[in-house]
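Bug #77: duplicate submission created two jobs. Keeping one. Sequence:
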Amino acid sequence: MPLWNALHWVVSAGVERLSDERDAASLERLELRLQSIERATVLDLASARIGRDLARAAKSAFEAGGIGEMFFAECAPGAPAAALFSPAVAMFGGLAPNLTSNDVAAVTNVVMSAAASATEGDALLEFVNDCGGAPLRSPFLEGQDLAAAFFDLGTIDRFVQDFVDIEGFLIDFGVSIQRISLDTHEIRGIALAGSGLRSTIVINSSSIYNEGHQGERFTLAHELAHLLHDRSLAISVGMASGPWAPRGVEKRANAFAAMFLMPRFLVLRAFGSANSFNQPSDVNAAAEQLRVSFSALVEHLANLELITDYDRDLLRRRVERQNISH
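Kept job's structure:
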């Protein structure tokens, strides 16, 4: 609204300060443009963010599914500004711009399921701590601290064995886990939450990050970070994790996921008294016990300063050699 009011002020104040014909022509074009924008509809606003084809496909899919009201957004009086965002617009605005019609239908079905279920329970809401936007300091440190604080509460203790039972935790706290296969491979997962929706984590089975159970576990922990700490970024519905999400926010969610699945005390327990953190065989055994990938554990060991950067690079080369030989 301040921007809209400022543009109108430019037009009204400019009339009194015209110096030549070029200024008059520019001012007239601006005034006509403002008049055109003022007539913008909710669909126009959505189209400006995600493209008209995708906006129309999303709107049609929601209406066909009987939840057309979720595409509703309220415009501010006399201005092309959203006074109230719709969950659907917020969600699709966070997804990839190259979604196919099949992808739109698949995601719509998930939203319909989340809307049909009971609203999210108090169990998860108790731990929601919205960071309110991009990290204010190192995304890595923020993510680690958020996960460590979660363990300090003691709530997750019963889900910690030799590994962190992320699936058991999510189910116990009322989070629905859905698996769909999207045409786009670049979206790893989607987090849904908010008024009228059951908290839901969607795993995109076609993503290379989710090819194994270890990858899916990391995606679940990553999306949990969004459910707990990134709600204001996507209004009342969460975001999709992919190259279109804010980089700092994604890095923070990755750091949260690594620390959540591999808390320091559990890593030390997995290696035992030998503490041979730079030995490939021991790293592999610890990764299997923690139910994470070899490469994820290697990176986390370096972040925890349990191995040097040199050791990390040597272990990385081992992974590269294995991938080439296979």
